[in-house]
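Entry 14. Ran structure prediction on the chain below.
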Amino acid sequence: MKRYLVLKNGSIYKGNGFGSKKMVHGELVFSTGMTGYQESMTDASYDGQMLVFTYPLIGNYGINQDDMESLHPAVNAIIVKEIARLTGNWRSKMTLQQYAEREDLPGISGIDTRALSKELRLYGSMEAIIVDSLDKKVINDAFKSPLASSSAQLASTNSIYQAPNSGLRVAMIDFGLKDSILRALAKRNVNVIVFPSDTSAEEIMKVDPDGLLLSNGPGNPENIAYALPTIKSLEQQLPVLGICMGHQLFALANGAKTYKMKFGHRGFNHAVKDEKQIRTNFTSQNHGYAVDESSLKGTDLEVTQREINDGTVEGLKLKHLPAFSVQYHPDASPGPHDAEYVFDEFIDAMNANQKVGNK
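Output, structure tokens:
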């Protein structure tokens, strides 16, 4: 079935539809990852976005039950050059096409995704639609529809729940967390209690946590300002780790500012320099906002890591408290272990905090 990807700037790409046949409208973004399409599609940080895969062949290892970041897709459409007809993975339970049909997820193939990505780099991420017709009224009406929501508050859990284990107790505020964060903590025997994004500091402290983790999530961090007093209060009492959205909220809570990037960082091959360890890691990233380094002046925040290509802030820490953050996803190390040490540093900070009698 022929379908059309129409960009807000008027560009039109003709392709073949698969999955759901519904019209879709969202923010069009691209990922440079060669693999990991399943994790990307189910990552809540992509909530409401239309995802372009720059790698030319997608779906060659199918869909399995183990690599999901959430139960259902977070993206509202996927755009590919070529979709694999055959799969070659013993864990595969279905093809990407079958998954898209089951989850009512629109897809379009046969698109020159490299040219499309170059256009997004040139003009920035923008609104787009997938439609069956190039009728002007159809297109105008489609763009008039409300843009799909991309909110950490909506992506958050509505109730407190536990991922039990036998080790340290971590309170995690959920802004749209990935299941791989829970898996990384479980591997380290961490007992995790997950809280909704609007939980108060007093409610979190009732579970007597050893540390606080601020999860990833979608959207503009400035829209989650209600969480800043909680973060500010808890960092005075507990070691803190912020990841992605959590990194941005950690910065805002301590007086910094954020800004919307032109086309963001999305993929699994972003090189980040850790200035403390004098090392470079390849990292998994998915964000359209970043911390404004010029706004750090006069705060207690220090830059600990930077993106090699554009110099954006990738890591922060407080000067006098065991609280730090990273913009990337240490739970999804492309290396495959490049940035996992971030979790170990968090555990070390919690253990050290207990030894000095702050717990």
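The first strand starts at residue 2 and ends at 7. Will compare against last week's run tomorrow.
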